[in-house]
Structure formats: structure tokens, C-alpha cells
Amino acid sequence: MIQTQTKDQEAMQKKTPQQHHQKAAEHHEQASKHHKEAAKHYESGDDKAAAYYAQIAQGHTVQATEEGTEASKKHTNMHSPKK
User: Fold this and answer.
1) Could you tell me which of 4, 9, 55 has the C-alpha nearest to residue 30?
2) What is the mean pLDDT of residues 42-61?
């Protein structure tokens, strides 16, 4: 089975571990912003808007985790003993 890479996957492969960590941090910050916004909407009784912002926050959390995982993989590959 032949797999084709998306532009996002290609871009992910070109990043350094430092760039992955930076992107992870940016996504965590965005997730935090959207979680706070969701909390405000829940407090005001607007469950629909709250769910919307919570979903956006979740997407940023997933992206942050993916970037962090890639950084760890690259770090391991760079510093693993060669066989």
C-alpha cells in the first residue's frame, strides 16, 4: 500500500526539534485561550458557544501533543547510539 504525504506531514518532517517545541507551546497557548473562552460561555449559559470553543481548544491540544511527540522522536533519533 502506497502512502502519500500531506503538506502538513511534509512540513512536520522538515522542522527541527526546537521548532516542534515552539509550535507545541503556541498550540498550548491557543488551547488555553479557547478553554477560557469556553468557560465564560458556560458561565453565561451559552452552551452552544461553549461547546464550539471547547472543540477548538481540543484541536489545539491534539496539535500540541503531535508537535511534542515529533520533537521527542527527533531528539531520540539524533541522540541514539548508532548501530
Assistant:
1) 55
2) 98
* Grid coordinates given for 21: 517545541
Amino acid at 61: T
DSSP character string of 15-64: --HHHHHHHHHHHHHHHHHHHHHHHHHHHHT-HHHHHHHHHHHHHHHHHH
Phi-psi region of 45 (alpha: psi -120 to 50; beta: other; left: phi over 0): left
pLDDT in tens, 64-73: 999 999 999 9
**Is this prediction's pTM over 0.90?**
no
Distance from the Cα of residue 6 to its chain's centroid: 16
**Domain residues of the chain, as ranges?**
39-66
